[in-house]
From TrEMBL:
InterPro entries noted in UniProt: OmpR/PhoB-type_DNA-bd, Sig_transdc_resp-reg_C-effctor, WH-like_DNA-bd_sf
Pfam families cross-referenced by the UniProt entry: Trans_reg_C
GO terms, biological process: phosphorelay signal transduction system; regulation of DNA-templated transcription
Gene transcribed to yield this protein: cusR
Domain OmpR/PhoB-type: 58-157
Keywords for the protein's UniProt record, in alphabetical order: DNA-binding
Entry's Gene Ontology molecular function annotations: DNA binding
Source organism of this protein record: Rhodococcus coprophilus
Keyword DNA-binding recorded: yes
Protein name in UniProt: Response regulator, two-component system
Gene3D superfamilies to which the protein is assigned, alphabetical: Winged helix-like DNA-binding domain superfamily/Winged helix DNA-binding domain
Residue spans binding DNA: 58-157
Amino acid sequence: MTTDHLERTDNALPPDKPELVLIVQVSDTGAVKPGDLAALADALRETATGLLPGARTHTLLSSGPAPLVVDLPARGLILDGSRVELSHTEFEILAHLVGRPGTAVPRSTLRALGAGYVDAERGNRAVDVHVSRIRSKLGRFGNVVTTVRGSGYRFDPDARVHVVELLHRRSA
């Protein structure tokens, strides 16, 4: 995650409530201060809560473009402003890799996420087929999913890739 992003999450509500993710891109004019961004995030959350009472909100403010957004809470992928459809298994694999940046994840672990079936058409290479499809759908960012020869796959963070995660408030 890059430092030019500010995130706010409201997790005070039960997890079964609807969730609204707001992604706002702010032009980088140098006139915006971090405190201003925080105030904007709070105002957006207030407005969103008014529109969708009881919803949990997650606000991402960015001073520059985030060409690829992996939105874990919403189970979404946004590439250059357009939503990219992933199958359930593709998203599970991507989410697992993204949750462990820089760490090689064995194929056997990914197979347990739902890509472990064996059929005559694909043989026992189902994980590899799913990863190939993920890379294809990531377009020019396909290289953030790296093959670790003889082991599995790894997510390599990139400054242009933003991962939206649920932020949990800590109580003192």
